[in-house]
Amino acid sequence: MRLTILGGGGFRVPLVYGALLRDRAEGRVTHVTLHDLDGARLTAIARVLADQGAGVPDAPSVTVTTDLDEALRGADFVFSAIRVGGLEGRAADERVALAEGVLGQETVGAGGIAYGLRTVPVAVDIARRVARLSPGAWVINFTNPAGLVTEAMSRHLGDRVIGICDSPVGLGRRVARVLGVADPARARLDYVGLNHLGWLRGVYADEGSGTGAGAVNLLPALFEDESALTSFEEGRLFGAEWLRSLGSVPNEYLHYYYFNRETVTAYREAKQTRGAFLRDQQARFYDGMAERTSAEGALAAWDRTRAEREATYMAENREAAGAGERAADDLESGGYEYVALALMRAIARDEQATLILNVRNGTTLPLLDEDAVVEVPCLVGATGARPVAVSPLTGHEAGLVAAVKAVERCVLEAGESGSARAAVKAFALHPLVDSVGVARRLLDGYRSAHPGLGYLRSGA
Fold first, then answer.
1. pTM, rounded to two decimals
2. How wide is the angle at C-alpha 68 spanned by C-alphas 62 and 69, nearest 5°?
3. 345 near 353, Cβ under 8 Å?
């Protein structure tokens, strides 16, 4: 089976390859093609993968290319993890937003909109090429903003594009572990929303076996136990009292909504933004790799950089919440690379699995139309991913989801038509941007920072 990774020079690619190395079952991936526009980054990551695969029998072979069409031909699966504008673009997104006093995070608020405006045209081009060159391929999208980009690609690939994210997986694992579920991976999760905008409303497990076969919802017991409720990342981030008020456990990214002012203040007072930190950190890694004469030590250098990256994840939010350092359990691997592998295995081998994915809504959430991409548990098999029933969104959850989906639709309109008017509307309608005037200045700032946004026409 052949896997193509778009954004193959990206820092997290070794996580995917590591998961492939541990998959010894029949029908596994035997060849990986890395595609990236940056040849030096491709070379660096290829050296890390060579270190990983050394001594592993039948390790998947690896080839690299900067030719997109070449990368796509013959692929069974295409894993898209591109970053349009690179980390310098992410840092610029943060600076422009913070100058206006609003959040510039890469997937939430003004920063997420700017990233989407840059990415949608590129993602649509990729989708069209896949449909033409490898119509039988399945596309697994991790490119952020993941739900928005998946929806853009689905207009050309239908259900053959599926979005993944590691946040719901980590949330479900942490909560199930705290609740004493014997095998957290087998608990049935009632989780629903959009990418980076979802809530865990139930953890169902047979208390005897630790599986999701029974009908016992263990989550209510969590809200009655102060110690348990504050023992995991989201409990420390949001606080026990707020979680009890909600009656659910939000995705960590909802901290940007519930504690927006505190987070913006922390971002503005930080020595550097997250994007700037990652830009500088990864530049050191890639520059160091370029100076090496062999692959020796490449994996160790990558792993040290990865550990630092994970330890500083959402540092500003934890500072604003007084949540302290990340717990050791939260630094474990087992995120999106395992979701991607489980998804590929389920489709390629028709091994049924239940995974939280970004897929077209169908009739799952009545407040959204059929083509809206949502993030919900899905039953996966040879024919793809099918959403399972979830409890309905209510109250502020429904309001936030409807509002943010309306913003996403404006971004899609702008990205596909070049309408600057639609782009301004996207900024202005977002719950974390409270002014049409600010929205107009944001678009002006982003167009100045990103020449690639020149496609947005003022009169459109």
1. 0.92
2. 100
3. yes
